[in-house]
Amino acid sequence: MENLSKINVLFIWDVNERLKNYLKSKLEQLSNLNLIFPKDLSEENLLSLAPKASVIIGWRPDIKMLQSADQLKLFINPGAGVQHLIPIFRDLERKDQIILVNGHGNSYFTAQHAVALLLSLTNKIILHHDWMKQGKWRTGDSEAKSVPLWKKKVGLIGYGAINKKVHQLLSAFQCEFSILRRSWENTNEQLLTPVTRYEPSEIRKFMGNIDFCIVAVPQTGNTVNMIQKDELNRLGRTGFLVSVARGQVINEEDLYYALNENRIAGAAIDVWYDYSPEPNTDNQKFPYHFPFHELSNIVLSPHRAASPFDNLDRWDEVVENLTKISEGKKDFINQVNIANEY
Q1: pTM
Q2: Packing angle of the helix pair 316-326, 17-27 (nearest 10 deg)
Q3: Burial category of 59 from C-beta neighbours within 10 Å (exposed 0-12, middle 13-18, buried 19 and up)
Q4: Distance (Å, whole) CA 266 – CA 35
Q5: DSSP for residue 170
Q6: Using an 8 Å Cβ cutoff, are 200 and 222 in contact?
Q7: Mapping DSSP to helix (H, G, I), strand (E, B) and coil, where does residue 125 land?
Q8: 258: CB partners within 8 A, 6+ apart
Q9: Rounded-to-integer distance, Cα 161 and Cα 104, Å
Q10: Is the pLDDT at 79 greater than 90, yes or no?
Q11: Band of the pLDDT at 81, cuts 50, 70, 90?
């Protein structure tokens, strides 16, 4: 390997000791990497450190810090969503010289959660759990029967890291799969099972041909309100919806009334519409603007699909990208296309 100059890697949040030790142990053989874990996370101190950084890792960078980082080559966002970063990186003076990378290390956990939500919904787990807590023993199909997944039609909206794993997990049920994704340019891609292919312009046809819909797309200008009243009506009275995407992908009002009026059979939702809700008079906080919690045909989840957050294996993607820059490579995994917003 050629003699490479020192690469300063700046972490812009309070990294716990367990993660620090994990990263150091994984990267200790790369002598040209200098990991910087500042104790002082004030804006002033980060601004003073940024000009020395070739790599910055964190979730919510200040644009002034990024503008001052004149040696910056790579910004790593360890989480799955970059919608908050797109406007910042579009405005950067050196935007063509800085690569933005997204994190998919939580995709296994999120896929697991999506399937858990689906099964909780179709098997009426919450309803029967609550009845048992009330002392109602052996409630059966007359109360709330399960809906089988076996040999049903599953639609995946988005086919990135999460839904590829959902596809794998649900294939055991011998489902018939349909996939709607932005592009099918790679026609030689080997898919796990036979699938029916759809593009975004065909979403209503797609929704009309499936029994279960799993939504796992990034929030972009093209995906906000992607699913509205007409799409939900196409899913129909026996259709189920699961979302681990972003709240704004599904129109909130249309989703509520589709559930309230039983125009779809049910939904399981992990992503919401107000992440700073004001407490009501009973000091309750609801991250939405319609009373979803009063419905019996929904499973509510507080944006926790990425749990467990203390799992260290999820950082192996970061380790891989730091190894690449240490070796002078530029083929980073999970590079974000700023124009496409993901």
Answers
A1: 0.93
A2: 40
A3: middle
A4: 47
A5: H
A6: yes
A7: helix
A8: 229, 232, 233, 264
A9: 7
A10: no
A11: confident
Q: Is the dihedral of CA 319, 321, 323, 326 positive or negative?
A: negative
Distance between CA 236 and CA 226 in Å, rounded? 17
- Which amino acid type is present at position 261? E
Residues 6+ positions from 118 with CB-CB distance below 8 Å = 149, 212, 214, 240, 242, 268
Q: Using CA atoms, how far apart are residues 285 and 288, in angstroms rounded to an integer?
A: 9
Distance between terminal CA atoms of the chain? 32
CB 185, CB 213: distance < 8 Å: no
- β-sheet bridge partners, residue 196: 178
Distances (CA, A) of 80 to 61, 247, 248: 15, 14, 15
Neighbours of 92 (CB within 10 A): 18
Cα 210 to Cα 22, 35, 101, distances in angstroms: 43, 48, 33
Q: Where in 148-282 does DSSP place strands (E)? A: 153-157, 176-180, 195-198, 212-215, 240-243, 266-269
- The C-alpha angle 265, 106, 98, rounded to 5 degrees, equals 120
Q: Give the pLDDT confidence of 286-332 residue by residue, as tens digits.
A: 999 999 999 999 999 999 999 999 999 999 999 999 999 999 999 99
What residue has token string 């990024």? 66
